Amino acid sequence: MIPPLVHPPRKNPTLRTRQPLLPPGARSRAALGLTAAAALGRFELQVCEACGAVQYPPRETCHRCLADALRWREQAGTGELLSTTVVHHSHDPFFRERVPWRLGLVRLDAGPTVVAHLHGGCAPAPARVRIGARLDKSGQGVLLAFPPDEVPNMADDPELREMTCDPKFRKVLVTDGKTAVGQALVRALIGAGADLVWVGYAEPWKQTPGFADLEALPQVSLVPLDLTDSRAIAQSAAEIGGKVDILINTAEVHRTHGIASRSGVEAARAEMDVNYFGLLRLAQEFGPAMRSRGADGPTSATAWVNLLSIYALANFPPHGTFSASKAAALSLSQCLRAEMRPGGIRVINVFPGPLDDEWNQTLPPPKLSAAALAKAVVKALQDGVEDVYPGEVAQEWLARWQESPKTLERELSL
Amino acid sequence: MNSLMSLASDLSSGAVRVIDLTQTLSPEFPQIALPPEFGQCWPFRIEEVSRYDERGSAWYWNNFSCGEHTGTHFDAPIHWVSGRDLPQNATDTLPVQNLIGPACVIDCSREAAKDPDFLLTAEQVRAWESSHGRIPARSWVLMRTDWSKRADPAAFQNYDEAGQHTPGPAADLVRFLVEERDVMGFGTESIGTDAGQGYHLKPPYPCHYYMHGAGRYGLQCLTNLDLLPPTGAVIVCAPLKIKNGSGSPIRALALVFNGSGDHG
């Protein structure tokens, strides 16, 4: 039985806030394949191209036939829990604060036997379990054994919560609540148990559908936040930045131009000012406080979410300047990820295909609905992944890009 | 003592007071908003260069950005298509002699309070003339609405689903002022010299169309017009000397005769 997460009491302001620590993060280059897959929410192990043997731990050559062609392949993860250990003492500062900590030895049906963190819902050994890969606080892929079926309060397991960014009882800032996506996200976060949602807005004189309705939600607080206005961002960060546990940057400018279809740089600059510089301004003002609160109790600061675009991977020429601004934001988000890591803050990038909004009006379906995108973001937080490609178009582009970026570039420019 | 030296003396004594007609340039001050697919005027934005810190140890300074039509600003004739081919129609070429002149202030504050779409007509201005005298040639006509007192940006912009609702001049007034009074320009407190619903007038945006078509100027986002007398103030409204510029933010000032200065 997993006890349900109880709402934490108010913080004792006379005690020092616990400093963020990270679990050991050193990995071999080969082992980073596990991290790369876990970042997408997948459990992959190397499989020998020659003899088919599944490898664990990651290595350079096959443990059975010594062939050096090892490919990362998704694994079902089912297996047998052989034995369990409870760590009561650790010299590692991160685990020292978190003992007792359960570990298990699991023989995968696919062959190897692995050491894994153990979800509290797993029955005593011997028992059937399902191995999943998760990112730990250091951003590295680790293995966690889950019970084979859903158990009550599954997400509230303390070991699992060290690897996820569940919005339950957390305080969230959504930077732009004027868009359909922003509004859907606010509702989805409240549905997922968020304590409080600050909703940013710019240009208060412009009325946009649905925005006024947000104010009626008891969890919502509206905050003026224009990502082009450095002083306003600094002001908001000063007022609320010390309490933001999850920041979701939904603000974006999207115009539908390539180079030749629009003379001048003004539309492109407006995109860049919000999509790239806006992220930079936000990161400078909100990043430090979040990073310092990465271990601030069970509902600590935990995640930063960027709404990017699948066009960040490869330029879609009809929306060429928008694509470029999202590529710039993607690059900056990698810098942000590196800088937020010491605080244990996960940076999650969301790469949707075309949204079903006015700027994609003339594109044919399938287009991603605001509600579907919001659901994907909440799930990404609950799963603790780093990269999300919601919807069919994003999935297809991702597959094509992973196979050959050059081929995709050519296909998109036809 | 010539009149200029006597002005200097009156300024020094306070017999002539200087009134600031300018809104503060700040990121919060709204800018004109066009439909999103159009090009947009930049709002005022400011980024710190250094503040006695590692970016510049002993000095504080900023870079700012804005459009030519941000904040309290001047419209040159080249701003509008009707004035595009006129001589001396841009901020760098217009005669600076035109930038200081008398102002007639027409108080429409009560009408604007009742009706945000209030349009000032030629007939109403003729009635104003019957009390205050004929509008002199080469003078500025300033439409006082107290709109500048709307400190909340949303109230200042005053949008609804049909667009913006702010007062301005009727088309017949603009023609009257240009053709029969030979004014230097027209000034308002709201975001444009034309009314918020000016697009639906004939022609669309008549103040821009006729004023600039005749080589005259516009001032907007003025404030403190309630401190000016109906006649007798002199305004100073020089735009930045932007090469081929269509307008510029300005520090608009008014000189008002106070009767008696500090020296009695």
Topology, element by element:
The complex is a heterodimer of chains A (414) and B (264).
Chain A: H1 32-39, E1 44-48, E2 70-74, E3 78-87, H2 93-96, E4 101-108, E5 113-118, E6 127-135, E7 141-146, H3 158-161, E8 171-174, H4 180-191, E9 196-201, H5 211-214, E10 220-224, H6 230-240, E11 246-249, H7 266-292, E12 303-307, H8 320-340, E13 346-350, H9 370-383, E14 387-388, H10 392-403, H11 405-412
Parallel strand pairs in A: 5-7, 8-9, 8-11, 9-10, 11-12, 12-13, 13-14
Antiparallel strand pairs in A: 1-2, 3-4, 3-6, 4-5, 6-7
Helix pairs in contact in A: 4-9, 6-7, 7-8, 10-11
Chain B: H1 3-13, E1 16-20, E2 45-53, E3 56-65, E4 73-75, E5 100-107, H2 109-114, E6 119-120, H3 122-132, E7 140-144, H4 153-157, E8 159-160, E9 163-164, E10 168-169, H5 171-180, E11 185-187, H6 206-213, E12 217-220, E13 233-236, E14 247-249, E15 253-257
Parallel strand pairs in B: 5-7, 6-10, 7-11, 11-12
Antiparallel strand pairs in B: 1-15, 2-3, 4-12, 4-14, 5-13, 8-9, 13-15
Explain this structure.
Chain A has two domains: 32-159, no CATH class; 171-412, 3-Layer(aba) Sandwich (Rossmann fold), CATH 3.40.50.720. In chain A, 30% of the residues lie in helices and 19% in strands. Chain A is built from eleven helices and 14 strands. Chain A has helices at 32-39, 93-96, 158-161, 180-191, 211-214, 230-240, 266-292, 320-340, 370-383, 392-403, 405-412; strands at 44-48, 70-74, 78-87, 101-108, 113-118, 127-135, 141-146, 171-174, 196-201, 220-224, 246-249, 303-307, 346-350, 387-388. In chain A, the strands form three sheets. A seven-stranded parallel sheet of chain A has the order 10-9-8-11-12-13-14, with helices on both faces. Chain A is globular. The model of chain A has no long low-confidence stretch (mean pLDDT 96). With 264 residues, chain B is an alpha/beta fold. Chain B has a single domain (3-26, 68-257), classed as Putative cyclase (Glucose Oxidase, domain 1, 3-Layer(bba) Sandwich), CATH 3.50.30.50. Helices cover 19% and strands 25% of the residues of chain B. Chain B contains six helices and 15 strands. Chain B has a nine-stranded mixed sheet. In chain B, strands 2-3 form a two-stranded antiparallel ribbon. In chain B, strands 6-10 form a two-stranded parallel sheet. In chain B, α5 (171-180) runs parallel beside α6 (206-213). In chain B, 41% of the residues are buried. The chains are: A alpha/beta (414), B alpha/beta (264). Chain A binds chain B through residues 203-207, 226, 228-232, 255, 264, 266-267, 270, and chain B through 27-28, 30, 33, 37, 39-40, 43, 45-48, 153-154, 156-161.
